[in-house]
Write a structure and sequence with these properties.
The structure is a homodimer. By secondary structure, chain A is an alpha+beta fold. Chain A is built from 11 helices and 15 strands.
């Protein structure tokens, strides 16, 4: 955890993925879905530094393979093209050829080299891309740096999401204003095995790809990976950061005096997007945040936080506004982390319910009133070390079942 | 896996936990619940050989501690007393004293030594037992070897279960008829963090406690532990076997010529009970069986089978009769087991949907018709070894959410 109290990071409510200098975007209806936009691009005026993290699934989809290959060439990207409606996963050799063709068509459309293009897909598994529609759609892409174009892009990447996810923050490095912005999709947050999580982040910070990867890994572990997306990963998950360098700060590396400022701003952007994904979980009515302190390590704290926020029984209790802390004990109890079973504290909001593993009296009425809020915070203190960690999720509702019992039809 | 084709194990539809010679039982309404029976006992005419497995939770409840202590004394048990409605978990020193008192009162009621009594509790966590009601209830226990008494016991141990779970099988060892029977409870099979799984098994086989523990461990790993109860364990889970020895076979040990016969009969009984628990999962409408073959090991096969059967997205798809094999791929993909992502076959029932990781055409209509059955079988072949394993679960429905959003109230 950074000591971040002196770092100023400002949220730009109106900012979008094209606020950082050098980026343009577009989103169109290519016809993969009935009426909604389904194809988008983010493009940079110059080859950008880049960093990415991918799904850990055994079954990485062809677009993941092609994107990895692009980045491996010279660690630069200038464009990323994304379609929704079809994940191009479990599509074998033809799927791989299609992902290459999607990359080639995008490169041709914008007159850039193929290895500067990343490809992402999200949607149903096991179906081939309708390449005629994809190719026509790519020809329709006319990126601009407008708010409208950003909204078109944010819409085009969604699947079962109810709302667009975007965030934009600014900070100052070497006296220069640095913008970081992102757009994301993902809504199957309750065990999101198949609900692809995609996030595309742009920045005008001047930073090389290797340093960007270091910063990204550090903040991904405590943000996107803490909404359980990595643990219950899809075939297509990807978080991609592109840095244009146009803010003209001195090159950022971990040795830069203001390195922590950049990392904190990136962290803030990632956390904002991750929480938006959790809040828009399929069927969700509440954002749930679990903070674990006093663990033997930060890894242990994060494991337990994620275990609690991932428990169906905790999620249903929160949906029912039921202060059933016994289910939190249950989730902690079967985690692999170190626990002293005789000294655990649990609070829901500011209402303490368990002290040294013993129930303490609390007002059920106040607890229910608190749990009726759209944001619920659970705090757990393990009292065995200094490790702390946070995870985010949502409640488990009738609508989750409804959405997922009929997703394909 | 045993070569079991020559072993005859017969199911006794009418058999109960008192079919094995030497056992009696009772179940009464002690007043912990409004009207249902809530306290039961199984007692043997003699100190019985015994074996047990317990929850792996960090927060083992006081009854688990007391039962372990009883068994540790001389590896014999003569009675087990069980209450529902209150788990006596997270109840600290008073909870432990209460569990001891429950043991002492039971020993006094039946004139046996305290260390021959096991104690089990299931229900809400964090509340103290109403010991006056427990003590009165114990005095009401009048065990008999009747079918009615068995039903009283089977009822008394239930919580949110909709149906009683019991099984009885017979086989022959040394020309003697051996009976094995059990009663079980547990219904929160979809992530059953808090849904205590209890199973009590009786047999009249002549077997020492150490051998019984060996047999029990072997079959628990492929039965009760494959309904995910151990992975998402409660504070109170327990499976307990008592053997009266009254069948008068030659003492069973792993060296006995018919050892495999006994193990197979125990396996059959455990599997029957485990499937009954899975089928009665909270809100469930379907029993789901997942068979994984071709894994590098049996452990890997069991991990993947359990991962698939535990996936919310697979469960909701089955509830919706949606042949969404992509979600099965998703569940396999993020398991820790070894997988060749290019050579996986998946069938639902007899309908193959994936061959060498590629989708193959199938009739959606036939698939939907199959998935409308109350039992659904998923078969996965990994084609990388000889390991196979099975897991059982159920679908995830609106009623699961309903039951668990309001469990305490």
């Amino acid at each position: 955890m950074l000591d971040t109290k002196d770092i100023q990071v400002l949220k730009l409510e109106e900012g979008t993925i094209v606020t950082p200098k050098g980026f343009k975007t577009a989103g169109v209806h290519a016809g993969l879905r009935y009426t909604k936009r389904d194809l988008g691009v983010v493009i940079c005026d110059v080859p950008a530094s880049c960093a990415a993290v991918y799904t850990l699934s055994h079954f990485q989809a062809p677009p993941i393979k092609v994107t990895k290959e692009s980045i491996a060439t010279e660690n630069k990207l200038q464009a990323v093209v994304i379609n929704s409606a079809c994940a191009n996963a479990c599509t074998g050799q033809q799927g791989l050829l299609d992902a290459y063709e999607m990359r080639a068509e995008t490169a041709a459309q914008f007159g850039i080299e193929e290895h500067l293009v990343a490809v992402a897909s999200t949607g149903v598994i096991g179906e081939l891309l309708q390449m005629d529609k994809i190719k026509n759609g790519i020809k329709m892409l006319q990126p601009t740096a407008t708010k409208e174009a950003a909204e078109d892009f944010q819409t085009a990447i969604l699947t079962t999401d109810l709302v667009m996810k975007k965030a934009c923050y600014q900070t100052t490095i070497n006296g220069k204003t640095i913008s970081i912005a992102g757009a994301a999709k993902g809504s199957g947050m309750i065990h999101p095995n198949m609900a692809t999580m995609l996030a595309f982040v742009t920045t005008d910070a001047n930073i090389d790809s290797a340093s960007l990867q270091i910063a990204m890994k550090e903040v991904t572990d405590v943000t996107f990976n803490q909404i359980t997306v990595d643990g219950e990963t899809s075939t297509n998950d990807m978080v991609l950061v592109m840095a244009s360098g146009m803010a003209e700060n001195e090159p950022l590396t971990p040795q830069h005096a203001e390195w922590k400022v950049f990392v904190h701003a990136l962290h803030t952007t990632f956390e904002d997007l991750a929480k938006q994904i959790a809040r828009d979980g399929e069927g969700a009515t509440k954002l749930v945040e679990v903070n674990v302190t006093g663990a033997v390590s930060e890894v242990d704290a994060r494991i337990i936080a994620k275990k609690i926020v991932g428990s169906n029984l905790v999620k249903t209790a929160i949906y029912g506004s039921d202060a059933n802390w016994g289910r939190i004990i249950g989730a902690i109890g079967h985690s692999t982390a170190t626990v002293n079973p005789d000294n655990v504290d649990i609070s829901i909001g500011s209402i303490q319910m368990l002290k040294a593993s013993q129930p303490i009296a609390f007002s059920e009425e106040l607890a229910k009133a608190y749990l009726d809020n759209s944001e619920v915070v659970i705090n757990v203190d393990l009292h065995i070390g200094d490790g702390f960690g946070t995870a985010w999720g949502c409640d488990l509702t009738y609508d989750y079942v409804k959405i997922n019992a009929s997703y394909r039809s």
